[in-house]
Amino acid sequence: MSNTDSFIDEVTEEVRRDRLYAGFRKYGWIAVLVVILIVGGAAWREYQKAQARSAAQAFGDQITAALESEEPEARIAALKAIETAEPGAQAILSMLLAAELAGADDDAAATQTLQSVANDNAVPLIYRQIASFKALTRSNGGLSVQERRDGFQTLATNANALRLLAEEQLALLDIEEGDTEAALTKLQAILVDSEVTAGLRRRASQLIVSLGGTLDAA
C-alpha cells in the first residue's frame, strides 16, 4: 500500500512540474518582460540623472569660465556664446548677462534682457518673477514711473513670492513722487505682515522713522 501511495505521489508531483513548466513556457515571458522593464526603467532613470548632472556641471563650468574674463565686453560675449535648451538654465544665463550689461552701462539692453525672461512662458514662474522684479528696479532702464508702478503692483499679489519686496518698491515710488502718507501706509503694512523678513522689517522701520512716522503699529 505504501509503495502505491509513493508512486501516486511521484506521478502527482511530476504532473505538477509539467504543468508549471508548460505555464512558464506560455506565460513566463510576461514575468521576464516585467523584470526587464523594472530593471531597464531604473537604469534609464539613473542614466537620465547622470546626463542631467553632467549637463548642469558643464553649464556651470561655461559660466565660470565666462565670468573669469577681466573685460566686461569679453564676459558679455562669452555669456552670449553659451547655449542651453533648458528654460530655467537659460533664464539664469540671461539674468547674469543682464547684470554684466548693466555693469557696462548698457541699462536699456539689461532691462530688455530681463523683460525677455519675464515674458517667456516656458521659463519657471519664480524665474520670471525675479527677472521682472530686477527689470522694474532698474531706474535707468527706460521705464516710466507708472510702468514700474504697474509692474510692482502685479508682483504685489498674495500668490507672489516677491510680494513684500514689491510692496517696498511701491512705497519707494510713493516717496519718489512725494506721497509720504501712501508710503507710510504701505511700510506700516509691511511691518505687521506675518511673512516679513528681518532685513525687510529693518529697512521698512528705518524708512518710517526717516519719513517722520512712528513704529507703534509694528
TrEMBL record:
Q: Which UniProt keywords apply?
A: Membrane, Transmembrane, Transmembrane helix
Q: Which Pfam families match?
A: TPR_21 (PF09976)
Asked whether the UniProt record includes Membrane among its keywords, one would answer yes
Regions crossing the membrane:
27-44
Domain spans labelled Ancillary SecYEG translocon subunit/Cell division coordinator CpoB TPR:
29-122
Q: What is the protein name given in its UniProt record?
A: Ancillary SecYEG translocon subunit/Cell division coordinator CpoB TPR domain-containing protein
Origin species, per record, is: Puniceibacterium sediminis
